[in-house]
């Protein structure tokens, strides 16, 4: 007997306790993609992600709204690998402490298993040089298991 089980953001169809197929939630975003979407190895499964405006605009506020499900607690020692490129030129590669970063958006570490939400607004500088920016974000546990993955591409005009 097969049955549907909704876990956070995924519709998972199981047969005799084996996962047969996963249907990931998709986003209608021109800028950002969840590259861990539908992969059960990722601890955070995103069900909703929106940025506004999409695409982002220089000198304007950028609002981020997201919802997802953590399949386990995430805490101390977890990290974010962030890379920013302008075209093919790597502008930044940095490893950030996840707990320090979540405190900046009014969350506390450890992040508990279960539903997570995020509402945050930042103001983008007017001085962003024109070009195609590519941002890769990989979030991992202290033992390097994947928590989340995002890829963003934004074009800023002169």
Characterise this structure:
The chain is mainly beta. Helix content is 4%, strand content 56%. It has one helix and eleven strands, in the order E-E-E-E-E-E-E-E-H-E-E-E. It has one helix at residues 98-103, and strands at residues 2-7, 10-15, 18-23, 32-34, 44-52, 61-70, 79-86, 89-97, 114-123, 131-140, 146-156. The longest helix is centred in the middle third of the chain and has 6 residues, at 98-103. The protein starts with a strand and ends with a strand. Mean pLDDT is 85; it is low at 1-26.
Rounded to the nearest angstrom, the radius of gyration is: 17 Å
Which strand-content bin applies to the residues?
over 45%
Mean pLDDT: 85
Unreliably modeled segments = 1-26
Distance between the termini: 59 Å
Oligomer: single chain
Descriptive tags:
158 residues, mainly beta, five-stranded antiparallel sheet, three-stranded antiparallel sheet, 1 helix, 4% helix, globular, disordered N terminus
Structure, briefly:
It contains one helix and eleven strands; from the N terminus they run ββββββββαβββ.
Task: Give the secondary structure arrangement, pairings included.
Blueprint: E1 2-7, E2 10-15, E3 18-23, E4 32-34, E5 44-52, E6 61-70, E7 79-86, E8 89-97, H1 98-103, E9 114-123, E10 131-140, E11 146-156
Antiparallel strand pairs: 1-2, 2-3, 4-11, 5-6, 6-9, 7-8, 7-10, 10-11
């Amino acid at each position: 007997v097969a049955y549907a089980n909704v876990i956070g953001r995924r519709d998972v169809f199981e047969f005799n306790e084996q996962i047969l197929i996963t249907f990931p939630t998709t986003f209608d975003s021109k800028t950002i993609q969840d590259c861990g979407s539908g992969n059960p190895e990722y601890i955070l499964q995103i069900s909703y992600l929106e940025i506004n405006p999409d695409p982002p605009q220089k000198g304007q506020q950028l609002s981020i709204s997201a919802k997802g499900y953590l399949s386990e607690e995430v805490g101390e020692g977890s990290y974010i690998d962030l890379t920013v490129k302008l075209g093919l030129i790597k502008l930044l590669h940095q490893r950030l402490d996840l707990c320090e970063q979540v405190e900046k958006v009014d969350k506390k570490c450890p992040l508990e298993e279960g539903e997570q939400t995020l509402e945050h607004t930042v103001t983008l500088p007017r001085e962003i040089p024109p070009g195609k920016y590519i941002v890769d974000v990989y979030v991992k546990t202290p033992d390097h298991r994947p928590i989340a993955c995002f890829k963003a591409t934004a074009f800023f005009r002169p």
